[in-house]
């Protein structure tokens, strides 16, 4: 059940007042990696906005302020550890210039991060990097820390001579003097201060070009080949986005730097993106994995986010929605629409999960505690889906034109949702206020549609009945949905527009002949949960012949639910023959849902012969659905034992093997968990598999996997596997696990801390509340605080899941197996008693489905 997003007492947040317009920010810093300290001078060139201004306030958290000067003269100041109030020597008139200079030092706990090897991780590099978004720049330099102030910037930094330092813009100078090295960077395009970056380390540089712009990759020495492999398509992306957005890449240089222990996947610092080094691809990972989505996302931010910036964080979707949607734009260009469409389903799944499992909220929002709270699946994934719908509503050419107009009009400025609506209206003539209102500003949730498609042969009339079944209330509206239905008549696709405006809407469409296919919302453009009722022959034809892969996959899914001999045959054929790997994968999952011996046999065969690793991975996943099936279990056991060319297939097979509860699973998964892999994926999935196998003897093994010194991703998976094993239990072992996870709430690895929070939610023991409260009070990371508060609330309400769910899940598995056996027996009996021929059986099925 979906909950309120805001906690009781959560207030509205608005962009702050601006007393001065900051034109230029110059930082001159000394960074000492060993002492984890920073010292320096921040100079702000400002123009006064309001008349008779006599004080300026800046954000400066936990910094020691040594002196402040205004236009070269000492100025009085007050600093309470968070805000720095500077008294101007005399009241200043609007339009006057001032130079404010702040001399300071500090040992930052946020904003500026110091990485170094320790006894548990001796190979960790010495690095220092920053993360300003959303309100952490104030921890390492005094600033007006809100996105609605933009200035040009320069940064001069002195570091040990063995290190390099990257910042925004172009390198003005680089001098080494004895054991110190000083680098001076400058960016002459105004940007918000959360985008100011510094990345220090022993870094190698790989340089290439796009048009006249240097494109540069920085990576820890020795990992150059991996960096090149991971980022190779960056120049192509620069070309694509420059063309699509109609504004050439707006900065003099584009750098990407990989850093260790980064607390996000990537950060779009202006002209100098930071990326986590966990995505550096080795050769084996590159077989069936790429990080183009991440690379494209951060690059697209250079336009959406950096050049044009959300006015306040409540409008953050204007940054993140566009960056996420740009992943689609890149895939569509690079691999084609079918591959890009896979993102649509992923985003929908993430958003639907958050909507039903956590909360429902409007995308643009004012009521939140901390900006980081809203960097969620509503912001990224739903935001991207909304832009995909917008593109569909106005049409391709108009969409690109509107983006160009929006970027041009607001270049170097800040925006809110209405600015996008106006820009689209100005360039297309279409007033889309209703669209932005229902999807972004006023409306929350999404349509739940029940669609029925019927054919009247006498009238040659197709009837499409669409019902919006979502409960509409103050926030969830009855939606206006421009959609279409695609008929295939005599071999040709014909799209008919449906403007759905009512809770129940019936459309009659005259056709020349009975359609072979009738697809509601081809390409799944509309963000909705849809139930479709139509004849089996239409589903079968859609699976075999729909133009778009996403529609063929949907047909596979529907046929898997429906079952029957025709569905089974068609799914088997799709598994072997569909031209797109993801449809073969979808057919595999649908076949598994049928749970027949024949279907299992086809899956086992496919696992052996499928050449596309990503399809093979889905086949392995499908086999994992066959709980207690010895054939599936032994096929998966072989893959886990012998390995696979792809890390991901091997990993998926491990998880699936656990799910089948095969007798040998425990032993094979323990062995698999000794293998190192990209992102520790094999170990992660082996741990998950052990939990799925309900291998209670694995607790000690998993506790060892959680230990400091192991790879971060594996540790997180171990935390979750432990929780799944003791979920709902209150015995001594379960208590030991809970207490261990409570300790991990204070881990030095943010992501492991986050996993511990989730694990405690899964265990569902209110005894964890005290430890979670302590974590919420001391923790500096807003993501942990927010999620901690949610879990505390759930544990108090008793809505966290417990033993009953685990038992029901087990029983469901047993029942499914029993149902399969019974159905097969029934089918054999029927075959013996009635002997109808296949054709008449097909016809009968068709009739009852209508
Ligand atoms: Zn982003």
Structural topology:
Blueprint lengths: L2 E2 L15 E13 L4 E12 L4 E7 L4 E7 L2 E2 L2 E3 L3 E10 L4 E10 L5 E4 L11 E4 L19 E11 L3 E3 L3 E8 L2 E13 L6 E3 L1 E8 L2 E8 L3 H8 L2 H12 L8 E6 L6 E2 L4 E5 L15 H10 L7 E2 L6 H18 L2 H21 L1 E2 L17 H17 L1 H15 L3 E2 L1 H12 L4 H9 L6 E9 L4 E8 L12 E9 L2 E9 L3 E7 L6 E4 L8 E5 L2 H10 L3 H14 L2 H13 L3 H14 L2 H13 L3 H12 L5 H13 L4 H14 L4 H8 L8 H12 L6 H7 L6 H15 L5 H13 L5 H14 L5 H10 L3 H16 L5 H31 L4 H12 L1
Parallel strand pairs: 1-23, 2-12, 18-19, 19-21, 22-24, 25-31
Antiparallel strand pairs: 2-3, 3-9, 4-8, 5-6, 5-9, 7-8, 10-11, 11-16, 12-15, 13-16, 14-15, 17-18, 20-21, 25-26, 26-29, 27-28, 27-30
The structure holds zinc ion (ZN).
The site of zinc ion has 4 residues, from helix 3 and helix 4.
């Amino acid at each position: 059940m979906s909950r309120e997003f805001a906690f009781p007492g959560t207030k509205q947040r608005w962009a702050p007042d601006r007393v001065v317009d900051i034109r230029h920010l110059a930082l001159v810093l000394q960074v000492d990696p060993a002492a984890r300290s920073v010292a320096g001078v921040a100079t702000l060139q400002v123009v006064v906005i309001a008349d008779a201004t006599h004080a300026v306030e800046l954000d400066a958290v936990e910094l020691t302020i040594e002196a402040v000067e205004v236009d070269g003269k000492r100025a009085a100041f007050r600093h309470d550890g968070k805000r720095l109030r500077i008294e101007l020597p005399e009241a200043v008139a609007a339009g006057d210039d001032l130079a404010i200079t702040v001399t300071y030092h500090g040992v930052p706990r946020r904003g500026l991060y110091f990485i170094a090897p320790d006894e548990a991780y001796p190979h960790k590099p010495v690095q220092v990097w920053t993360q300003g978004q959303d309100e952490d720049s104030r921890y390492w330099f005094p600033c007006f820390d809100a996105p609605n102030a933009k200035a040009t910037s320069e940064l001069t930094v002195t570091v040990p001579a063995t290190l390099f330092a990257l910042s925004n813009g172009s390198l003005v100078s680089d001098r080494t003097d004895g054991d110190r090295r000083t680098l001076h960077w400058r960016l002459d395009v105004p940007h918000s201060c959360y985008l100011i970056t510094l990345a220090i380390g022993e870094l190698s540089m790989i340089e290439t070009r796009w048009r006249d712009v240097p494109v540069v990759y920085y990576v820890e020495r020795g990992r150059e080949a991996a960096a090149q492999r991971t980022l190779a398509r960056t120049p192509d992306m620069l070309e694509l986005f420059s063309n699509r957005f109609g504004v050439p890449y707006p900065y003099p240089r584009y750098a990407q730097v990989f850093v260790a222990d980064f607390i996000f996947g990537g950060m779009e610092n202006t002209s100098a993106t930071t990326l986590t080094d966990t995505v550096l691809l080795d050769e084996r990972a590159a077989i069936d994995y790429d990080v183009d989505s991440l690379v494209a996302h951060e690059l697209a931010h250079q336009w959406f986010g950096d050049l044009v910036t959300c006015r306040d964080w409540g409008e953050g979707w204007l940054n993140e929605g566009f960056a996420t949607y740009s992943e689609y734009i890149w895939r569509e260009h690079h691999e084609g629409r079918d591959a890009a469409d896979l993102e649509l389903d992923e985003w929908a799944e993430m958003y639907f999960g958050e909507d039903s499992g956590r909360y429902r909220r409007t995308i643009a929002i004012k009521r939140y505690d901390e900006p980081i709270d809203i960097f969620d699946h509503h912001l990224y994934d739903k935001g991207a889906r909304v832009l995909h719908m917008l593109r569909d509503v106005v049409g391709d050419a108009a969409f690109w034109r509107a983006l160009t107009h929006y970027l041009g009009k607001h270049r170097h400025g800040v925006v809110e949702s209405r600015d996008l609506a106006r820009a689209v209206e100005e360039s297309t003539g279409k007033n889309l206020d209703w669209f932005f209102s229902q999807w972004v500003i006023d409306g929350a949730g999404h349509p739940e549609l029940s669609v029925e498609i019927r054919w009247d042969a006498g009238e040659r009339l197709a009837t499409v009945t669409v019902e919006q079944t979502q409960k509409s209330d103050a926030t969830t509206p009855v939606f206006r949905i421009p959609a279409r239905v695609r008929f295939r008549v005599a071999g040709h696709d014909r799209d008919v527009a449906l403007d759905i405006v009512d809770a129940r809407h019936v459309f009659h469409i005259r056709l020349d002949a009975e359609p072979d296919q009738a697809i509601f919302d081809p390409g799944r453009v509309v963000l909705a949960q849809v139930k479709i009722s139509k004849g089996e022959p239409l589903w079968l034809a859609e699976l075999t012949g729909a133009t778009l892969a996403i529609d063929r996959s949907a047909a596979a899914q529907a046929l898997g639910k429906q079952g029957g001999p025709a569905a089974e045959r068609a799914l088997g054929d799709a598994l072997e023959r569909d031209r797109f790997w993801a449809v073969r994968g979808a057919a595999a999952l649908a076949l598994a849902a049928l749970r027949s011996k024949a279907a299992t046999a086809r899956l086992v065969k496919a696992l052996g012969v499928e050449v596309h690793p990503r399809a093979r991975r889905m086949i392995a996943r499908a086999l994992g659905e066959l709980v207690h099936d010895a054939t599936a279990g032994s096929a998966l056991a072989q893959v886990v034992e012998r390995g696979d060319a792809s890390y991901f297939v091997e990993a998926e097979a491990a998880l699936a093997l656990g799910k089948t509860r095969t007798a040998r699973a425990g032993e094979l998964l323990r062995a698999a968990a000794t293998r190192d892999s990209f992102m520790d994926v094999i170990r992660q999935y082996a741990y998950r598999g052990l939990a799925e196998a309900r291998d209670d003897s694995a607790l000690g093994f998993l506790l060892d996997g959680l230990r400091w010194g192991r790879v971060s991703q594996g540790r997180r998976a171990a935390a979750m596997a432990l929780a799944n094993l003791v979920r709902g239990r209150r015995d001594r072992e379960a208590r030991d696990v809970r207490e261990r996870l409570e300790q991990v709430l204070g881990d030095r690895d943010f992501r492991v801390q986050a996993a511990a929070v989730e694990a405690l939610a899964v265990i569902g023991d209110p005894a964890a509340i005290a430890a979670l409260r302590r974590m919420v009070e001391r923790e500096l990371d807003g993501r942990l605080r927010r999620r901690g508060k949610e879990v505390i609330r759930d544990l108090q309400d008793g809505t966290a899941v417990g033993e009953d769910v685990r038992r029901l899940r087990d029983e469901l598995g047993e029942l499914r197996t029993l149902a399969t056996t019974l159905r097969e027996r029934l089918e054999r009996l029927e075959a013996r008693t009635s002997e109808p021929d296949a054709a008449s059986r097909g016809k009968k099925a068709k009739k009852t489905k209508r």
